[in-house]
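Please review the protein record below. Tell me whether the encoded fold seems credible here:
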Amino acid sequence: MDVFPAGVRDTALVRALGLFKIPVIFYVRPSVIEMTDDRVEIKIPLIRRTKNHLNSMYFGVLAIGADVSGGLLAMKAILESDSKIELVFKDFQAQFLRKAMADVHFTSEDGAVAREMIAETLRTGERVNRTVNIVGTCPSISPEPVAKFALTLSLKAKG
C-alpha cells in the first residue's frame, strides 16, 4: 500500500525532475491532478512568477505546462516498460485562444500513443515520432480551452 496518495506522489516526482534536471519546471510549481495509463492532467497555478504584464499566464509557462503533460504519459509508459528509451520533443505547435486568467489545467489523453511508440521503437530500434495533443483550460472560469498544443514526441530505444 502506498503511503502517499497518487497525486501527491506524482507531483513530488514531477517537481523532483524539475529540481534536479529541468529547473524551470520546478520554478512554475506544477501539480499532478490525475494520471492514469491514458490520461494526465497537470495544473500550473497563476501566481506572480507565472504571470505576464497583463496578469494572465505567460505564454512560456503555458508551453512548460504542455511539455510536462505531453511528456509525463510517455515517461510513465517508459518506466513501466523497464526499457532504456530516449524521449525528446521534435516539434511544438501552439494555439493561444484566450487569456489564461486563472490556474491552468493541461490535459492529454494520448497514453495509448506513447505505448504504441514504445512498442515500435523496441521492435525496430528506430526513432519513432508521433504527435501528442494537449489542451489547456482554466476550469475555475470556463471549460473552454485557453490554448491547444500539438507536440511531436520522439522516442528511440537505446542500444
User: Anything to note?
Assistant: The chain has one domain: 6-157. The first strand starts at residue 31 and ends at 35.
